[in-house]
Amino acid sequence: MADTGTLECITEHERILQEIESTDTACVGPTLRSIYDDQPNAHKRFMEKLDARIRNHDREIEKMCNFHHQGFVDAITELLKVRTDAEKLMGQVTDTNRRLQEAGRDVTAQTQEVICCRIQQRNMATTVEKLQLCIPVLEMYSKLKEQLESKRYYAALKTMEQLEKVYIPRVGQYRFCQIMAENLPRLREEIKEISMSDLKDFLESIRKHSDKVGEAAMRQAQLHRNFNSVVVKQASSGHFAKPVYSLNGRTHTHNGLKMEDDAGEDDEVDDEVLTVQDLVDFSPVYRCLHIYTVLGDRETFENYYRKQRKKQARLVLQPQANMHETVEGYRRYFNQIVGFFVVEDHILHATYGLVTRAFTDELWNMALSKIIAVLRTHSSYCEDPDLVLELKNLIVIFADTLQDYGFPVNRLFDLLFEVRDQYNETLLKKWALVFREIFELDNYSPIPVETEEEYRLVVSRFPFHDAEIEKQDFPKKLPMSQSVPQIYTQVKEFIYASLKFSESLHRSSTEIDDMLRKSTNLLLTRTLSCCLQNLIKKPHIGLTELVQIIINTTHLEQACRYLEEFITNITNVSPETVHTTRLYGLSTFKDARHAAEGEIYTKLNQKIDEFIQLADYEWGMAESDGRASGYLMDLINFLRSTFQVFTHLPGKVAQTACMSACKHLSTSLMQMLLDSELKQVSMGAIQQFNLDVIQCELFASSEPVPGFQGDTLQLAFIDLRQLLDLFMVWDWSTYLADYGQPTSKYLRVNPATALALLEKMKDSSKKNNIFSQFRKNDRDKQKLIETVVKQLRSLVNGMSS
Predict the structure, then answer these.
(1) In sequence order, what DSSP letters do the residues of 131-174 get, joined into one string?
(2) What is the rounded CA–CA span in Å between residue 430 and residue 413?
(3) Nearest-CA neighbor of 288 among 148, 155, 147, 193?
(4) 191-213: per-residue pLDDT in tens?
(5) I want to staple 684 with a disulfide (CB 3.0 to 4.6 A). Which of 113, 377, 563, 623 is the partner?
(6) d(CA 716, CA 665)
(7) Which residues contact 300 (CB under 8 A, 6 or more apart)?
(8) Interatomic CA distance for residues 148 and 163, integer angstroms
(9) Which ranges of 613-713 would DSSP assign to H, the alpha helix?
(10) End-to-end distance of the chain based on CA atoms, in angstroms?
């Protein structure tokens, strides 16, 4: 069995060696791997087999080399013999070639000379013939170069056309003609680029100088507006105007008056006409348009021009951030816009199609919307009425200038109404400060006049007429304080300031009258009214000042009709005209007067409260002091002196103030008596309180303010009087028997009030009379109090149910 395995192993190794010898080296790996997968130590036997095979091949190679060695040596010996013969042959061939070249050199030279002469003759004849055809082409091309150098682009385009259609086709086969033909489109493009560059320079130039064009146009419109009235006057006297200036051929006139030039000097105006061409050179536009038209590319040029002008329009319409700070900012803004549209108007009428009316209208509509938005925004920042007024004048000149060129400007005049509202707002703010300063500096005392001149001076500033005061001797006093004529004068100044805005708005007298009245109403009803209301509410304004404020508002109210007459004299519009706005000053001063009256009532009550706080009753006293309390006498003296100041007030105001004070005093005393913190009240305290109420009644009966009928003022204390009488007389049987009847003696005594006070006295009796139960009278009185308390409670419960 071992021999059999060895034999199989040898056979397998033979097969593997054959595969290694016959197959590619890339496949050797799997073959060799199979050796290691067989029996153990098989690779050693394979190596032995492989070494034997290598030695066998080496022996075969050695045999083959030995067999061919002698033939190789013989071949090398023969090659060495042939090389010597080849070198000899090469030397003979070279010598033969040299002798042949030397023999034919002269013949070759003579033949070449003959050929060259004939070629030259033929070339000269052909050259002369072709030059006669090429010279005109070269001359035309040279002419083209000269035209380009001299910037005669239109002539250059005509020369190019002749070259292309006439001259170049004759000699088109030549290279230089092909180069010329190839250069002509490039030259056309260069001409287009040069003309377009000139156009761009023109656009840049007018963008920088449009403000000068606009300034000239607006100055002319300003002169036209300023001299228009003079023209009318002189025309009526037989004088005729002469043309002075023109922009775009539109002549305006004035009457030989002087104009102010840039240097600020007045020179007499000649008949010289100023045109837009004097300010702007339009030749680049005309030239570029003509060139593009000749080149058949007019539409491209038109589109480019319009596109660039739209971009410039947007740039022109962009305002500076601080434009609203000075009038110069607005003026530069308007000058640029006017200059832009003056140039477009000239292009419209001079180029026949480069821009159309529809295009300019589109630009204007876009610009107008932007202008209105810009002005609406920036005017809202203006706090100075003088600046707003100058802005209005600029807008009017701006609108008049563009209207002369056919642009619709109605929306600008509509905007002026919004600016007018802004102007009025700034005026109202300014006059609010003026009014506030007047009120702060006023001494709130009647105006003293020492002489007739002082009296006339006051009357000239304020329409005051009083026959009684006029009869008085000097020195005398006018009832109003110094703020009244100042306020009246400032209202007139406001009307003048408001009127300034209405000038040159092309509005009728009726509309101007309506504007003035409405703005004056705003001044009276809002600004002046607010200042008065704030003044009245100030803590340092006392009763004397409030009285003077009421007197002042009365006189200002009476002066309102003179303000109406003042406005009528300015506008020449009758107040009887239909839809004429009336002044609402009456309501303003009435409201202020009512507020002052209310403040008087409030301050009087506050002062009464201050005195009431000084009250110091001894509620448990056995007997009264026999005289009224000191605090109450001080309060009555204060009220007497205060009501003496009210002599200049209207009767109803003084009476209302007096009645309000007495009612408030009565209420305060009642509240003091019924205070929940007050637990006990003795009869002596009731008697002392009664003495104080008697003083109040005496004060009311003394008629501190004239005009009260009978005991009207005393009725303010009727509740206290009936309550105190009920307790002083101890008339409970009458009260209970007559309760609810209109003829009751104690009709104003409420059961709840009587019950509250009676319980305070009941507690006081218990505390002060410890041994009252041992005295029959005291016991009877205590029983009576308890009985009355029960009956009063039943009445109170009946009222609540």
Answers:
(1) HHHHHHHHHHHHHHHHHHHTT-HHHHHHHHHHIIIIIHHHTTTS
(2) 25
(3) 193
(4) 777 777 777 788 887 777 777 88
(5) 623
(6) 9
(7) 292
(8) 15
(9) 630-645, 651-673, 683-701
(10) 141
Task: Note whether 700 and 716 are within 8 A (CB).
Answer: yes
For residue 489, is it left (φ>0), alpha (ψ between -120 and 50) or beta?
Answer: alpha
Q: Per-residue pLDDT tens for 241-298?
A: 333 333 444 433 333 333 333 333 334 333 344 556 667 777 777 777 777 777 777 8
Predicted pLDDT of residue 26: 62
The residue written with tokens 């070449």 in the block is: 112
Q: Long-range contact list for 453-462, CB < 8 A, 24+ apart?
A: 458/485, 461/485, 461/486, 461/488, 461/489, 462/488, 462/489, 462/555, 462/559
Q: What DSSP state is assigned to residue 478?
A: E
pLDDT (tens digit per residue) in 533-554: 888 888 888 878 888 888 888 8
Max alpha carbon distance in the chain (Å)? 197
CA dist., res. 38 & res. 555, Å (int): 140
135 and 143 in contact (C-beta within 8 Å)? Answer: no
User: Where is pLDDT greater, at 767 or 676?
Assistant: 676
Q: Could you give the CA distance from residue 691 to residue 623 in angstroms, rounded to a whole number?
A: 12
- State the Cα–Cα distance between residues 672 and 440, nearest whole angstrom: 40
- Distance between CA atoms of residues 248 and 230, nearest Å: 25
Query: Residue 356: CB partners within 8 Å, gap ≥ 6?
Result: 348
**C-alpha Rg value of the chain to the nearest Å:** 62
Name the DSSP letter for residue 524. I
Phi-psi region of 624 (alpha: psi -120 to 50; beta: other; left: phi over 0): beta
- Does the pTM surpass 0.85? The reply is no
**pLDDT value at position 725?**
87
CA dist., res. 420 & res. 454, Å (int): 39
Cα–Cα distance, 730 to 727 (Å, whole number): 5
Q: 630-664: per-residue pLDDT in tens? A: 888 988 888 888 887 776 676 577 788 888 888 98
Closest to 227 (Cα-Cα) out of 214, 239, 215 = 239
- Closest to 677 (Cα-Cα) out of 770, 785, 756: 756
How many CB atoms lie under 10 A from the CB of residue 710? 8
Please give the mean pLDDT across all residues of the chain.
Answer: 78
Q: Do the Cβ atoms of 789 and 759 come closer than 8 Å?
A: yes
Between CA 488 and CA 482 the distance in angstroms is 11
What span, in angstroms and rounded, lies between the C-alpha atoms of 214 and 211?
5
What does the alpha-carbon distance between residue 485 and residue 460 come to, in Å, rounded to a whole number?
9
Percent of all residues in the chain with a pLDDT value above 70, rounded to a whole number: 85
Report the SS3 class of residue 473.
coil
